[in-house]
């Protein structure tokens, strides 16, 4: 009896900008590995595949462009801006495989019994809709199952806009195996859902065309529920056994010949004595020569002197700290996750361990409901006083969060808005060309300070230079 065939698809990104900052469909690859464990034949089409051989041939390249850490640019095609985004003075683009390559791959894939389609940011849904439409045309009678972030946060919109046969919000493994058991007439699948994160096989990276880095997950979810964040809406909080994490990291790095690994955790440093410290000690003892990256914001208050030393010895190359804001009321909204004093101590510990302050980064959020620009400037200035670089993030109204409800209640955001209007690039609560340029002004200020911090130069009282007109442009 032939194995049932499952096709997994990671769709395109539709946005004003996108870059491969350690971007892999990790959840989809975990599910692919789980399905293969149960005897199913799994194929993957990753629309964000920079290693696709046909794409590389079109680019006259033998391998993708890459920077330190394995990151690099996606293929980009400028497309017509949706009417609701006409006010934006930037090109809108589809990032990922050209349509003809995707269509060719789809037609050359063995006819699947089921198609699994994942989704990312809510405002990237046009890429999901296009992938679903093409799948319908090529495989009209094949059941289409939609999961992922967009499907979880906006299920009603997803049902209408995508038209999938089945919608699976939340962690996919909870409902996928029982559904496949029914669709494929394979009842044994229903009782084989992993009960812990450790029950999953390693993600199926071998289903991709090539790798410059790996991604990993030592924990899932976050125990906090910050006012602007939806992580707690996507899944519960759980951690893996440190020995399982290290085993996966070391074996996968050796298997694929890759040294760069990015953690996808939203709460990597939570419960440090149970998770991150044992993981790092085991990695150090293994003598694995890895370059570790933490692109998601780290809970800075847990970085004591010991953890800082372990991070340095284990090979962390990218450290991004969660600061968000120094305003007292804002910190109350984010569960007092960090205070300026704790931030200062963490940076001091990291520098004492051997990290250069100019290579450390911190996330700062702007354009929140009711947030004045002065609050953002004060937070940028404080971060700069520590010698670290700033990564400014515009607020995106995420359905189900406290700040989304505030924005709607205050008349700052329409309750029935198209998800395209939640795109952080457009400064969603203002949605105008003027507002875009106003916050670009703030971004230029941060960029100028970052250049100084990288060079080891600290500007005293930088708030006083906020109106400076000769900062470098950022595009």
Brief synopsis:
The chain is α/β, with parallel strands linked by helices and 475 residues long.
How would you characterize the overall build of this protein?
The protein contains 16 helices and 16 strands. With 475 residues, the protein is of the alpha/beta class. It folds into 2 domains: 187 residues, Cobalamin-binding domain (Rossmann fold); 253 residues, pyruvate-formate lyase- activating enzyme (Alpha-Beta Horseshoe). The strands form 4 sheets. Strands 9-12-13-14-15-16 form a 6-stranded parallel sheet. The longest helix is centred in the C-terminal third of the chain and has 22 residues. The relative contact order is 0.10.
Layout: helices, strands, pairs:
Layout: E1 5-10, E2 13-15, H1 26-37, E3 41-46, H2 53-58, E4 76-79, E5 92-95, H3 99-108, E6 114-117, H4 125-138, E7 144-147, H5 149-153, H6 155-162, E8 166-168, H7 172-183, E9 214-216, E10 219-220, H8 231-234, E11 238-239, H9 242-256, E12 260-263, H10 276-286, E13 291-298, H11 305-314, E14 316-324, H12 328-333, H13 340-353, E15 361-366, H14 373-385, E16 389-394, H15 402-409, H16 433-454
Parallel strand pairs: 1-3, 1-6, 6-7, 7-8, 9-12, 12-13, 13-14, 14-15, 15-16
Antiparallel strand pairs: 2-5, 4-5, 10-11
How would you describe the shape? globular
What do we call the CATH homologous superfamily of the largest domain? Answer: tm_1862 like domain
Q: Which spans of ≥5 residues are poorly predicted at pLDDT below 50?
A: none
What's the gyration radius in Å?
22 Å
Number of strands: 16
> Overall mean pLDDT score?
93
Q: Major beta sheet, specifics?
A: 6 strands, parallel
């Amino acid at each position: 009896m032939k194995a049932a065939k499952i096709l997994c698809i990671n769709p395109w990104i539709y946005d004003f900008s996108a870059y491969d900052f350690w971007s892999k469909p990790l959840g989809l690859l975990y599910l692919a590995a789980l399905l293969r464990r149960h005897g199913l034949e799994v194929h993957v089409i990753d629309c964000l595949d920079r290693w696709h051989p046909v794409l590389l041939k079109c680019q006259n390249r033998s391998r993708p462009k890459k920077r330190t850490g394995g990151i690099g640019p996606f293929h980009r095609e400028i497309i017509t801006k949706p009417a609701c985004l006409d006010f934006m003075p930037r090109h809108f683009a589809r990032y990922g495989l050209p349509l003809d390559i995707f269509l060719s791959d789809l037609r050359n894939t063995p006819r699947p019994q089921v198609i699994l389609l994942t989704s990312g940011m809510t405002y990237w849904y046009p890429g999901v809709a296009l992938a679903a439409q093409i799948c319908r045309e090529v495989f009209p009678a094949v059941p289409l199952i939609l999961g992922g972030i967009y499907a979880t946060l906006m299920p009603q919109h997803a049902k209408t806009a995508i038209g999938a046969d089945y919608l699976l919000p939340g962690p996919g493994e909870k409902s996928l195996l029982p559904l496949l058991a029914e669709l494929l007439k394979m009842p044994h699948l229903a009782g084989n859902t992993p009960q812990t994160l450790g029950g999953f096989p390693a993600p199926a990276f071998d289903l991709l065309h090539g790798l410059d880095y790996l991604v990993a997950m030592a924990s899932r979810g976050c125990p906090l529920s910050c006012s602007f964040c939806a992580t707690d809406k996507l899944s519960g909080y759980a951690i893996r056994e440190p020995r399982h994490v290290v085993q996966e990291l070391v074996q996968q790095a050796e298997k694929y010949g890759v040294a760069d690994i990015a953690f996808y955790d939203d709460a990597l440093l939570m419960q440090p004595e149970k998770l991150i410290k044992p993981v790092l000690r085991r990695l150090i003892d293994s003598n694995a020569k890895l370059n570790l990256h933490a692109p998601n914001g780290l809970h800075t208050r847990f970085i004591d002197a010991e953890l800082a030393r372990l991070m340095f010895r284990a090979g962390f190359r990218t450290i991004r700290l969660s600061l968000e804001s120094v305003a007292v009321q804002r910190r109350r909204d984010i569960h007092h996750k960090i205070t300026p004093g704790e931030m200062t101590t963490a940076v001091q510990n990291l520098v004492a361990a051997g990290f250069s302050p100019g290579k450390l980064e911190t996330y700062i959020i702007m354009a929140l409901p009711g947030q004045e620009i002065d609050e953002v400037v004060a937070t940028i200035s404080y971060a700069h006083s520590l010698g670290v670089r700033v990564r400014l993030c515009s607020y995106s109204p995420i359905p189900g969060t406290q700040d989304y409800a505030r924005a709607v209640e205050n008349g700052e955001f329409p309750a029935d808005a198209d998800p395209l209007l939640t795109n952080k690039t457009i400064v969603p609560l203002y949605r105008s060309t003027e507002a875009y340029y106003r916050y670009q002004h703030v971004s230029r200020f941060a960029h100028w300070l970052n250049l100084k911090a990288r060079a080891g130069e600290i500007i005293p009282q930088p708030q006083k230079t906020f109106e400076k007109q000769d900062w470098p442009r950022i595009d």
